UniProtKB/TrEMBL annotation:
<dbReference type="GO" id="GO:0042128">
    <property type="term" value="P:nitrate assimilation"/>
</dbReference>
<feature type="transmembrane region" description="Helical">
    <location>
        <begin position="301"/>
        <end position="321"/>
    </location>
</feature>
<feature type="domain" description="Major facilitator superfamily (MFS) profile">
    <location>
        <begin position="13"/>
        <end position="391"/>
    </location>
</feature>
<feature type="transmembrane region" description="Helical">
    <location>
        <begin position="82"/>
        <end position="100"/>
    </location>
</feature>
<dbReference type="InterPro" id="IPR044772">
    <property type="entry name" value="NO3_transporter"/>
</dbReference>
<feature type="transmembrane region" description="Helical">
    <location>
        <begin position="169"/>
        <end position="188"/>
    </location>
</feature>
<feature type="transmembrane region" description="Helical">
    <location>
        <begin position="274"/>
        <end position="295"/>
    </location>
</feature>
<feature type="transmembrane region" description="Helical">
    <location>
        <begin position="333"/>
        <end position="352"/>
    </location>
</feature>
<feature type="transmembrane region" description="Helical">
    <location>
        <begin position="12"/>
        <end position="32"/>
    </location>
</feature>
<dbReference type="GO" id="GO:0016020">
    <property type="term" value="C:membrane"/>
</dbReference>
<dbReference type="InterPro" id="IPR011701">
    <property type="entry name" value="MFS"/>
</dbReference>
<dbReference type="InterPro" id="IPR036259">
    <property type="entry name" value="MFS_trans_sf"/>
</dbReference>
<dbReference type="InterPro" id="IPR020846">
    <property type="entry name" value="MFS_dom"/>
</dbReference>
<comment type="similarity">
    <text>Belongs to the major facilitator superfamily. Nitrate/nitrite porter (TC 2.A.1.8) family.</text>
</comment>
<keyword id="KW-0472">Membrane</keyword>
<feature type="transmembrane region" description="Helical">
    <location>
        <begin position="139"/>
        <end position="157"/>
    </location>
</feature>
<keyword id="KW-0534">Nitrate assimilation</keyword>
Length: 404
């Protein structure tokens, strides 16, 4: 999918720096989810409290993405990324040094981790501004593949927590974060194609465009599904199939790996066949997979297969959405990345928290899965309603360079 023309079109060191920053930040962002079973046992949390604990970093990340989106256009993505990384590292070191002893303190840690989740609003503009329209899907797919950091969290955090205690994991995770910060300082550069900073009302003017709201909704389903499941599946596999925290972490890692690794593929496929066609197939696939899961499959391996299918659809959908966004809002990519990323976080918060509430109220996770499957169907219908207008208006302007 990556050809010589792509390698010559942009700035590869910055693309690598954006990927690594995004990757390790996402590892930190969802670190509470893989350790949720162990934390909940020590702090005696209810299913609803567990759901809220793992959902808080997702919601905090949604809010901070808007802040970072604005800072990117004022300070530049490189400087904004430096500030964000220092804040996250300092917060994690404080949590490790002073300890986390209550549910309220886990929520405070979640707020700090939200800054790591906001790396999305920095890494994507950092990479995007170096590449022309015909390579946006591939470039943002590669940078966005940094959500694979959630794999490391799911794979390693439960084992590290079992060996060293979950509070010490907050200190251990700062080691790769510090190394990534060093690489970022050396490799990352701001593109010379940087728009002039605007006043706040001018940034928010994009909200008057109906397409902005459509993109925000579409991403709330694709990314919301991905990060909501990434944050919740360790709890789900442990509760539903009595897996140990470590085994549940391995199952979660397999699902997250599938979803994160195909994000570049989703962007590249969208470059070739168009983002609309890609998203149509992906929403339909995700909806079917979530409905199947809601029935309560008899074995953990069957559930694993269904979740992998859902994560593949959500992961490719993430890449496809951001093949379209820069074509419609290239000059406003910083604020649009923040706004679209925010709603992705809101979708993830909804899924993670609703699964916990569904379990606490009804004793089953089915309602949480079914509601999100319904949102995927609504997104599919919405996409069908706008695709002809998109292709006839701003899509036509990009004819010959990028596909809608």
């Amino acid at each position: 999918m990556v050809n010589k023309g792509f390698l010559q079109a942009g700035h590869l060191p910055t693309l690598i720096a954006a990927f690594l920053y995004f990757d390790l930040s996402f590892m930190a962002w969802v670190i509470l989810g893989p350790m949720a079973v162990q934390i909940a046992a020590d702090l005696q949390l209810s299913p609803g409290a567990k759901g809220l604990m793992v959902a808080t970093p997702v919601l905090a990340g949604a809010g901070f993405r808007v802040v970072n989106g604005l800072l990117v256009d004022h300070l530049g993505p490189r400087r904004t990324g430096l500030i964000s990384q220092v804040v996250v590292i300092a917060g994690l070191l404080a949590a490790w040094w002073f300890g986390v002893h209550s549910f309220a303190e886990t929520l405070l840690v979640g707020l700090v981790l939200g800054v790591a989740g906001a790396s999305f609003a920095v890494a994507l503009p950092l990479a995007s501004r170096w590449y022309p329209p015909e390579h946006q899907g591939t470039a943002l797919g590669i940078a966005g593949a940094g959500n694979s950091g959630t794999v490391f969290a799911a794979l390693l955090a439960p084992s590290l927590a079992a060996s060293f205690g979950w509070n010490n994991v907050f200190g251990l995770v700062t080691i790769p974060l510090l190394l990534t910060l060093l690489v970022y300082v050396i490799l990352a550069k701001d593109s010379p194609d940087r728009p002039t900073p605007k006043r706040l009302p001018e940034y928010l003017a994009v909200l008057r465009a109906g397409d902005a709201w459509w993109f925000m909704f579409f991403y709330s389903v694709t990314f919301g599904g991905f990060v909501g499941l990434a944050s919740s599946l360790t709890i789900y596999f442990s509760d539903q199939y009595a897996l140990s925290p470590v085994a549940a972490g391995y199952f979660t890692a397999a699902c997250v790996f599938a979803g994160s690794m195909v994000r570049p593929l989703g962007g590249a496929v969208a470059d070739r066949i168009g983002g609309v066609r890609s998203l149509t197939a992906m929403y339909a696939t995700a909806a079917v997979a979530l409905v199947v899961v809601s029935f309560g499959l008899p074995t953990s391996w069957m559930a694993l297969g269904a979740f992998i299918l859902a994560m593949l659809a959500f992961g490719m959908g993430n890449g496809a959405v951001f093949q379209l966004v820069p074509q419609r809002f290239r000059r406003e990519i910083g604020v649009m990345t923040g706004l679209v990323g925010m709603t992705g976080g809101v979708g993830g918060f909804w899924l993670a928290s609703s699964l916990g509430l569904s379990k606490q109220i009804s004793g089953s996770y089915a309602a949480g899965f079914l509601v999100f499957a319904a949102l995927a169907v609504v997104a599919l219908l919405g996409l069908s309603s706008v695709k002809h207008r998109w292709r006839a208006t701003w899509g036509a302007a990009a004819a010959g360079a990028a596909r809608i």
